[in-house]
Specification:
It is a single chain. By secondary structure, this protein is an all-alpha fold. The protein has a domain of about 210 residues: Orthogonal Bundle (MetI-like fold), CATH 1.10.3720. The longest helix is centred in the middle third of the chain and has 36 residues. It is globular. The two termini are about 15 Å apart.
């Protein structure tokens, strides 16, 4: 198992290099530069700015400079947040986005898997129709609508939770639920469809014939054999939620990493774009490794050294 993890981590290195290279190339293919939207600078000052950030060098030299700094763990200075390094911005904002994202993952898994089990256990019943209706609504409604609705109900009318800021666990409930609505809906539909397929397998009939209760049939046998699509979905989902959502962070005034990523793109802040993209890529690689480990726990046939 340790060799498997080390091998996957080793494969992650060229993946991260490809992500960094592709992002760098795409940024420089787009017309314009990071300071083109600013007030026109005198030629002398513009030359000094370009020299400071190596923008006066050929693109290949800029790429080599960036790789050199990246190998030393330096993501470079931000072009728009003067005096701040990209490492510092990510260090300050990533813990907030990670906490919010993990809460959202937990909520989406509990709600989505639970709703999918209930719907699959009673197909074409009122519980099935109600659960799938709510799942469709969760997929269709945008985050800013869900967030605004939750603020109106639970903050302004019921006064259960604060409407904004990030000063404790109570401040994270509404944004976490808002962020979890969409993935919970997808997980519910995945769980339902996968469980319905498994419940018609011969081994489920055998388990029921042996006299096992319906709850044990559903949770111990059917769920374990139908959870694989959900686990596959959780890998990229976790990376996406942990890196933050600009819409949710904007609505609830959360100082996370999502808003920095959007402003970096609009401002052509090359180092910040590269830094956030690499964080996302690292999370994808790690999440996929965790997913593979969960696979081996769910299905022993998939363990290393098997078929």
């Amino acid at each position: 198992m340790i060799r498997f993890i080390l091998a996957r981590l080793a494969w992650g290195i060229p993946v991260l290099w490809l992500v960094a290279t592709a992002t760098f190339v795409l940024m420089h293919l787009v017309p314009g530069g990071p300071f083109d939207q600013e007030k026109p600078l005198p030629p002398e000052i513009r030359a000094n700015v370009d020299a400071k950030y190596h923008l006066d060098q050929p693109v290949m030299m800029q790429y080599l400079f960036y790789l050199k700094d990246l190998l030393h763990g330096d993501l470079g200075p931000s072009y728009k947040y003067l005096g701040r390094n990209v490492n510092d911005i990510i260090r300050d904002t990533f813990p907030v986005s990670m906490q919010l994202g993990l809460w959202a993952v937990l909520i989406s898994v509990i709600v989505g898997v639970g709703a999918g089990i209930v719907a699959a256990a009673r197909p074409r019943s009122w519980a099935d129709h109600a659960g799938m209706f709510l799942a469709t609504a969760g997929i269709s409604l945008p985050s800013f609508v869900v967030g605004t609705f939750l603020i109106m109900v639970f903050s302004y009318r019921l006064h259960f939770f604060p409407a904004a800021l990030w000063e404790g666990w109570r401040y994270g409930m509404l944004p976490a639920v808002t962020l979890a609505m969409l993935p919970a809906a997808y997980i519910a539909r995945l769980t339902r469809s996968s469980m319905l397929e498994v419940l018609h397998k011969d081994f489920i009939r055998t388990v029921r014939a042996k006299g096992f209760g319906e709850r044990q049939v559903l949770l111990k046998h059917a769920l374990k054999n139908s959870i694989t699509p959900v686990v596959s979905f959780l890998g990229p989902l976790t990376a996406t939620l942990v890196t933050g959502s600009f819409v949710v962070e904007f609505i609830f005034s959360i100082p996370g990493m999502g808003r920095y990523f959007i402003t970096a793109v609009t401002n052509r802040d090359y180092p910040l774009i590269m830094g956030v993209t690499l964080v996302y890529a690292v999370l994808i690689v790690l999440a996929n490794i965790v997913v593979d480990l969960i696979y081996t726990w769910i299905d022993p046939r998939m363990r290393v050294g098997g078929n």
